[in-house]
Amino acid sequence: MKVRLRFAKLGKVRFTSHRDVARMWERALRRAELAVAYTEGFSPRPKLSFGLALSTGHESMAEYLDIDLRDQPGREIDVASLVPRLSAAMPVGIDVTTALRVADFADALPAVVGAGTWRFEIVGESRA
Questions:
Q1: What pTM was estimated for this model as a whole?
Q2: Which residues pair with 7 in a beta bridge?
Q3: Which residues contact 55 (CB under 8 A, 6 or more apart)?
Q4: Which of 6, 36, 85, 122 is the 20 to 30 A CA-CA neighbour of 103?
């Protein structure tokens, strides 16, 4: 089963690199006790797929992540319950806003997320 998450990255956590955010997700998934699928080989890693990488120092209201979950006979995962469960496992500043199930053969996130909208706010400057 593949689950697509949308999350916000706001506040001090914006200074965290993309690689560190990926490690935060790995720890949060372990804390939430989700049955995440792992890669095979010498050094197994959780099967996570991020959308476009956010530059260090920037905030975002819509970052995306796909998680491959293992099928567990007799245990169906309530996707709606993942939002509060994962938000509680993440550090302050990262909040999961949406979770939905996507088809296992759905397009990869980098193919789906083709653009972003930026908003710049200049504080302390006047137009004069």
A1: 0.83
A2: 63, 96
A3: none
A4: 85
